[in-house]
Design a protein that fits this description.
- The chain has about 190 residues and is mostly helical.
- The chain has nine helices and no strands.
- Helix 1 (about 5-15) packs across helix 2 (about 20-40), helix 2 crosses helix 3 and helix 6 (about 115-130) packs across helix 9.
- The longest helix is centred in the C-terminal third of the chain and has 27 residues, at about 160-185.
- It starts with a helix and ends with a helix.
- About 25% of the residues are buried.
Length: about 190
Amino acid sequence: MTNETIDNQLMFRVKEGNLDQMALLFDRHHRSLYGFFYHQTGIKEVSEDLVQTVFMNMIRSRATFTGTFKFETWMYTIARNALKDYYRRNKRTGNTVNTEELEEHIKETTTADHTLHRKEEELILRKALARLSETDRELIILSKYREMKYQEIAEILKLSEGAIKVRIHRAVKQLREIYLEISQQTMSV
């Protein structure tokens, strides 16, 4: 039995009123959702709150789950809506990542040189991600970090698979340019 089948079966049980099955779905997906939100916001507490919001919204919206698409596709659609609501409530554009928190984290982590170097690269990447538009950042997170297929992302965003391929290619190109720019600035300091 595939993970997709298991997730769909669990969600159908939740839909039927067996709400304790949501705990199993939470165990299976809360880490990936947290990563999605953390890459978007850069704020640990907000990411944790948004994960809880998504699971509460899934319970509230359980009647809308049809199983036509993968459970993850349905879940990330709800996650995107929760993130948009968060930005609306906080009057943010989605382009703000708490880089001070990331810099502090790197300062605290002074183990081996290679670990520090990796952390510095991670910080540069997070800063570069923060400079992307909310849409481009979301595309990169879904495709590269969540390893979703173009078809799945197309279903979530309600676009064609071809449009997703083009947008992801452009977003990655822009991310690479921003990353190189930040790297050069960091080297010259």
